[in-house]
Amino acid sequence: MKTIIKTFFILLVAVSISLAQGFKVKATGEKSFNFEDKYGRNQASFFSTTPLEDITGVSNAVMGKVTFNVGDVKSLKGSISIPVASIKTGIDLRDEHLKSDNWLDAESYPEITFTIKKVGDVKVTADNKLEAKVTGDFTAHGVTKEVSANVTMTYLDESEQTKQRASGDLLGVQATFNIVLSDYDVENMVVGQKVSEDIEISINIVGSSAM
Amino acid sequence: MNSKQKYVLIVAILLISAAVIWWLGSGGEILSKDGIWVEKQMTELDKTLGLKPELEFQEKFILGLLPHTAVFSGIVVVISTILFFIFKTKKTKETS
To answer: A94-102 — which CB contacts under 8 Å span 24+ positions?
Structure first.
Protein backbone atom coordinates (compact mmCIF):
# COMPACT_ATOMS: atom_id res chain seq x y z
CA MET A 1 0.00 0.00 0.00
CA LYS A 2 2.83 2.41 0.96
CA THR A 3 4.54 1.73 -2.37
CA ILE A 4 1.35 2.59 -4.27
CA ILE A 5 0.92 5.85 -2.34
CA LYS A 6 4.60 6.74 -2.90
CA THR A 7 4.35 5.96 -6.61
CA PHE A 8 1.14 8.00 -6.89
CA PHE A 9 2.76 10.93 -5.06
CA ILE A 10 5.89 10.81 -7.26
CA LEU A 11 3.72 10.66 -10.38
CA LEU A 12 1.65 13.61 -9.15
CA VAL A 13 4.80 15.67 -8.56
CA ALA A 14 6.21 14.63 -11.96
CA VAL A 15 2.98 15.60 -13.74
CA SER A 16 2.86 18.94 -11.87
CA ILE A 17 6.47 19.69 -12.86
CA SER A 18 5.89 18.75 -16.49
CA LEU A 19 2.76 20.94 -16.64
CA ALA A 20 4.50 23.92 -15.06
CA GLN A 21 5.65 26.20 -17.83
CA GLY A 22 7.98 29.00 -17.07
CA PHE A 23 11.42 30.45 -17.51
CA LYS A 24 14.59 28.40 -17.29
CA VAL A 25 16.85 31.08 -15.89
CA LYS A 26 19.21 31.46 -12.94
CA ALA A 27 16.48 32.95 -10.78
CA THR A 28 14.10 30.59 -9.04
CA GLY A 29 11.05 30.79 -6.81
CA GLU A 30 8.60 33.64 -6.51
CA LYS A 31 9.61 37.02 -7.91
CA SER A 32 7.88 40.39 -7.98
CA PHE A 33 8.38 42.98 -10.70
CA ASN A 34 7.56 46.65 -10.42
CA PHE A 35 6.78 48.48 -13.67
CA GLU A 36 7.09 52.03 -12.43
CA ASP A 37 9.85 53.74 -14.39
CA LYS A 38 10.95 57.18 -13.23
CA TYR A 39 12.30 57.91 -16.70
CA GLY A 40 8.91 57.22 -18.33
CA ARG A 41 10.25 54.52 -20.64
CA ASN A 42 7.34 52.14 -20.12
CA GLN A 43 4.54 52.76 -22.55
CA ALA A 44 0.91 51.86 -23.11
CA SER A 45 -0.73 52.99 -26.32
CA PHE A 46 -4.01 52.74 -28.16
CA PHE A 47 -4.80 52.89 -31.84
CA SER A 48 -8.12 53.81 -33.40
CA THR A 49 -9.34 54.72 -36.83
CA THR A 50 -11.75 57.44 -37.86
CA PRO A 51 -12.95 58.22 -41.39
CA LEU A 52 -10.65 61.26 -41.40
CA GLU A 53 -7.51 59.94 -39.74
CA ASP A 54 -5.98 57.31 -37.49
CA ILE A 55 -5.62 58.25 -33.84
CA THR A 56 -2.75 57.10 -31.64
CA GLY A 57 -2.78 57.73 -27.91
CA VAL A 58 0.18 57.12 -25.65
CA SER A 59 0.83 57.04 -21.91
CA ASN A 60 4.33 56.87 -20.46
CA ALA A 61 3.12 56.74 -16.87
CA VAL A 62 2.56 52.99 -16.57
CA MET A 63 2.35 51.67 -13.02
CA GLY A 64 1.89 48.20 -11.65
CA LYS A 65 3.35 45.13 -10.11
CA VAL A 66 3.24 41.43 -10.95
CA THR A 67 4.30 38.40 -8.94
CA PHE A 68 4.88 34.88 -10.20
CA ASN A 69 6.91 31.75 -9.74
CA VAL A 70 9.75 31.91 -12.26
CA GLY A 71 9.29 28.23 -13.11
CA ASP A 72 5.52 28.49 -13.51
CA VAL A 73 4.20 31.53 -15.33
CA LYS A 74 0.62 30.38 -14.77
CA SER A 75 1.04 31.60 -11.18
CA LEU A 76 1.19 35.19 -12.52
CA LYS A 77 -0.80 37.70 -10.46
CA GLY A 78 -0.88 41.47 -10.36
CA SER A 79 -2.12 44.50 -12.22
CA ILE A 80 -1.01 47.25 -14.56
CA SER A 81 -2.56 50.70 -14.67
CA ILE A 82 -2.21 54.12 -16.26
CA PRO A 83 -3.58 57.50 -15.19
CA VAL A 84 -6.16 58.76 -17.74
CA ALA A 85 -4.63 62.24 -17.41
CA SER A 86 -1.33 60.93 -18.79
CA ILE A 87 -2.75 59.96 -22.22
CA LYS A 88 -1.44 62.10 -25.08
CA THR A 89 -2.73 61.95 -28.64
CA GLY A 90 -0.64 64.74 -30.11
CA ILE A 91 -3.51 67.25 -30.26
CA ASP A 92 -4.20 69.19 -27.03
CA LEU A 93 -7.90 69.73 -27.81
CA ARG A 94 -8.39 66.02 -28.42
CA ASP A 95 -6.53 65.18 -25.18
CA GLU A 96 -8.95 67.41 -23.28
CA HIS A 97 -11.89 65.73 -25.03
CA LEU A 98 -10.56 62.30 -24.07
CA LYS A 99 -10.47 63.28 -20.40
CA SER A 100 -13.95 64.83 -20.47
CA ASP A 101 -17.20 63.37 -19.08
CA ASN A 102 -18.30 62.10 -22.51
CA TRP A 103 -15.17 60.04 -22.93
CA LEU A 104 -12.99 58.61 -20.17
CA ASP A 105 -14.07 61.06 -17.44
CA ALA A 106 -10.64 61.41 -15.84
CA GLU A 107 -12.05 63.19 -12.80
CA SER A 108 -14.43 60.37 -11.79
CA TYR A 109 -12.35 57.48 -13.10
CA PRO A 110 -8.71 58.59 -12.93
CA GLU A 111 -7.15 55.23 -13.84
CA ILE A 112 -7.39 52.52 -16.46
CA THR A 113 -6.43 49.14 -15.03
CA PHE A 114 -5.77 45.61 -16.19
CA THR A 115 -5.87 43.01 -13.41
CA ILE A 116 -4.50 39.57 -14.26
CA LYS A 117 -6.81 36.63 -13.57
CA LYS A 118 -5.53 33.71 -15.58
CA VAL A 119 -2.64 32.69 -17.83
CA GLY A 120 -3.17 30.12 -20.57
CA ASP A 121 -1.84 28.85 -23.91
CA VAL A 122 1.73 29.16 -22.67
CA LYS A 123 4.30 28.56 -25.39
CA VAL A 124 7.93 28.60 -24.30
CA THR A 125 9.95 30.00 -27.21
CA ALA A 126 13.34 30.18 -25.46
CA ASP A 127 14.73 29.54 -21.99
CA ASN A 128 14.00 33.14 -21.04
CA LYS A 129 11.12 33.91 -23.37
CA LEU A 130 7.52 32.76 -23.66
CA GLU A 131 4.22 33.66 -25.23
CA ALA A 132 0.91 33.32 -23.44
CA LYS A 133 -2.70 34.39 -23.43
CA VAL A 134 -3.32 36.43 -20.32
CA THR A 135 -6.93 36.92 -19.30
CA GLY A 136 -7.84 39.67 -16.92
CA ASP A 137 -10.28 42.38 -15.89
CA PHE A 138 -9.90 45.57 -17.89
CA THR A 139 -11.40 48.57 -16.12
CA ALA A 140 -11.99 51.89 -17.87
CA HIS A 141 -14.61 54.60 -17.34
CA GLY A 142 -15.79 52.73 -14.23
CA VAL A 143 -16.73 49.61 -16.22
CA THR A 144 -14.93 46.27 -15.85
CA LYS A 145 -14.91 43.64 -18.59
CA GLU A 146 -12.86 40.51 -19.08
CA VAL A 147 -10.35 40.67 -21.92
CA SER A 148 -7.61 38.37 -23.22
CA ALA A 149 -4.23 39.71 -24.21
CA ASN A 150 -1.56 38.10 -26.35
CA VAL A 151 1.56 38.53 -24.26
CA THR A 152 5.24 37.98 -24.87
CA MET A 153 7.39 37.88 -21.74
CA THR A 154 11.17 37.94 -21.59
CA TYR A 155 13.13 37.30 -18.41
CA LEU A 156 16.67 38.62 -17.98
CA ASP A 157 18.77 37.79 -14.94
CA GLU A 158 20.63 40.78 -13.56
CA SER A 159 23.79 41.50 -15.51
CA GLU A 160 25.96 44.43 -16.50
CA GLN A 161 23.70 44.88 -19.54
CA THR A 162 20.44 44.91 -17.54
CA LYS A 163 21.89 47.42 -15.05
CA GLN A 164 21.89 49.97 -17.88
CA ARG A 165 18.13 50.06 -17.47
CA ALA A 166 17.54 49.16 -13.81
CA SER A 167 18.99 47.05 -11.04
CA GLY A 168 17.63 43.57 -10.33
CA ASP A 169 16.28 41.01 -12.76
CA LEU A 170 14.24 42.45 -15.61
CA LEU A 171 10.95 41.29 -17.09
CA GLY A 172 10.04 42.62 -20.54
CA VAL A 173 6.36 42.46 -21.37
CA GLN A 174 4.82 43.15 -24.75
CA ALA A 175 1.05 42.73 -24.87
CA THR A 176 -1.76 43.53 -27.29
CA PHE A 177 -5.50 43.25 -26.99
CA ASN A 178 -8.67 44.85 -28.31
CA ILE A 179 -11.60 46.42 -26.55
CA VAL A 180 -14.99 47.59 -27.78
CA LEU A 181 -15.76 51.19 -26.80
CA SER A 182 -19.48 50.68 -26.23
CA ASP A 183 -18.68 47.99 -23.61
CA TYR A 184 -17.24 50.79 -21.48
CA ASP A 185 -20.08 53.30 -21.95
CA VAL A 186 -17.82 55.57 -23.97
CA GLU A 187 -19.31 57.50 -26.88
CA ASN A 188 -17.33 56.99 -30.04
CA MET A 189 -17.04 60.61 -31.08
CA VAL A 190 -13.94 62.65 -30.40
CA VAL A 191 -13.64 66.27 -31.55
CA GLY A 192 -16.46 65.69 -34.01
CA GLN A 193 -14.95 62.54 -35.49
CA LYS A 194 -16.58 59.14 -35.30
CA VAL A 195 -14.04 56.75 -33.80
CA SER A 196 -13.96 53.04 -34.59
CA GLU A 197 -15.74 50.86 -32.01
CA ASP A 198 -12.68 48.59 -31.82
CA ILE A 199 -9.66 50.02 -30.05
CA GLU A 200 -6.34 48.22 -30.21
CA ILE A 201 -4.31 48.50 -27.02
CA SER A 202 -0.62 47.77 -26.85
CA ILE A 203 1.58 47.54 -23.75
CA ASN A 204 5.35 47.73 -23.95
CA ILE A 205 6.88 47.62 -20.49
CA VAL A 206 9.86 46.47 -18.46
CA GLY A 207 9.67 45.61 -14.78
CA SER A 208 12.48 45.31 -12.29
CA SER A 209 12.66 42.86 -9.38
CA ALA A 210 14.73 45.35 -7.37
CA MET A 211 12.15 48.13 -7.04
CA MET B 1 -14.22 89.98 -68.38
CA ASN B 2 -11.78 92.87 -68.32
CA SER B 3 -8.04 92.62 -67.82
CA LYS B 4 -8.25 93.29 -64.05
CA GLN B 5 -10.81 90.53 -63.62
CA LYS B 6 -8.58 88.16 -65.62
CA TYR B 7 -5.65 89.13 -63.37
CA VAL B 8 -7.73 88.40 -60.22
CA LEU B 9 -8.83 85.04 -61.64
CA ILE B 10 -5.27 84.00 -62.55
CA VAL B 11 -3.86 85.05 -59.15
CA ALA B 12 -6.68 83.18 -57.36
CA ILE B 13 -6.09 80.02 -59.40
CA LEU B 14 -2.33 80.25 -58.79
CA LEU B 15 -2.78 80.74 -55.01
CA ILE B 16 -5.23 77.84 -54.69
CA SER B 17 -3.04 75.62 -56.88
CA ALA B 18 0.00 76.48 -54.71
CA ALA B 19 -1.96 75.61 -51.55
CA VAL B 20 -3.14 72.30 -53.04
CA ILE B 21 0.40 71.42 -54.20
CA TRP B 22 1.78 72.30 -50.74
CA TRP B 23 -0.97 70.18 -49.14
CA LEU B 24 -0.24 67.20 -51.41
CA GLY B 25 3.49 67.64 -50.79
CA SER B 26 2.86 67.55 -47.04
CA GLY B 27 1.37 64.09 -47.38
CA GLY B 28 -2.21 64.88 -48.40
CA GLU B 29 -3.52 64.49 -44.82
CA ILE B 30 -7.16 65.37 -44.19
CA LEU B 31 -6.51 67.13 -40.87
CA SER B 32 -3.63 69.47 -40.07
CA LYS B 33 -1.33 68.20 -37.34
CA ASP B 34 1.11 69.83 -34.93
CA GLY B 35 3.30 66.74 -34.82
CA ILE B 36 3.63 63.06 -35.58
CA TRP B 37 4.30 59.89 -33.64
CA VAL B 38 7.60 58.33 -34.62
CA GLU B 39 9.20 55.08 -33.51
CA LYS B 40 12.25 55.63 -31.32
CA GLN B 41 15.38 53.72 -32.10
CA MET B 42 15.65 50.62 -29.90
CA THR B 43 18.66 49.76 -27.79
CA GLU B 44 20.15 46.26 -27.86
CA LEU B 45 18.71 45.71 -24.37
CA ASP B 46 15.20 46.69 -25.55
CA LYS B 47 15.50 44.18 -28.39
CA THR B 48 16.69 41.48 -25.98
CA LEU B 49 13.72 42.27 -23.74
CA GLY B 50 11.40 41.60 -26.70
CA LEU B 51 10.00 45.13 -26.74
CA LYS B 52 8.52 46.97 -29.69
CA PRO B 53 9.82 50.44 -30.60
CA GLU B 54 8.58 53.15 -28.26
CA LEU B 55 6.46 55.90 -29.81
CA GLU B 56 7.69 59.45 -29.43
CA PHE B 57 5.82 62.62 -30.38
CA GLN B 58 7.80 64.92 -32.62
CA GLU B 59 6.56 68.45 -33.09
CA LYS B 60 6.21 69.14 -36.78
CA PHE B 61 3.48 71.06 -38.56
CA ILE B 62 1.77 68.98 -41.20
CA LEU B 63 -0.56 70.90 -43.48
CA GLY B 64 -3.92 69.21 -43.79
CA LEU B 65 -6.90 69.83 -46.03
CA LEU B 66 -8.82 70.84 -42.90
CA PRO B 67 -8.73 73.48 -41.73
CA HIS B 68 -5.74 75.30 -43.25
CA THR B 69 -5.86 74.45 -46.99
CA ALA B 70 -9.65 74.64 -47.16
CA VAL B 71 -9.86 77.89 -45.17
CA PHE B 72 -7.06 79.51 -47.21
CA SER B 73 -8.70 78.47 -50.49
CA GLY B 74 -12.07 79.69 -49.23
CA ILE B 75 -10.63 83.09 -48.29
CA VAL B 76 -8.97 83.35 -51.73
CA VAL B 77 -12.28 82.52 -53.43
CA VAL B 78 -14.22 85.07 -51.34
CA ILE B 79 -11.65 87.88 -51.89
CA SER B 80 -11.38 87.10 -55.62
CA THR B 81 -15.17 87.11 -55.99
CA ILE B 82 -15.42 90.49 -54.24
CA LEU B 83 -12.60 91.94 -56.39
CA PHE B 84 -14.14 90.41 -59.50
CA PHE B 85 -17.42 92.25 -58.89
CA ILE B 86 -15.68 95.48 -57.83
CA PHE B 87 -13.74 95.53 -61.09
CA LYS B 88 -16.89 94.65 -63.05
CA THR B 89 -18.71 97.65 -61.51
CA LYS B 90 -15.80 99.96 -62.24
CA LYS B 91 -15.77 98.82 -65.87
CA THR B 92 -19.52 99.52 -66.16
CA LYS B 93 -18.98 103.05 -64.78
CA GLU B 94 -16.07 103.65 -67.18
CA THR B 95 -18.13 102.60 -70.22
CA SER B 96 -21.17 104.68 -69.19
So the answer is: A94/A55, A94/A190, A94/A191, A97/A190, A97/A191, A98/A57, A98/A190, A102/A187, A102/A189
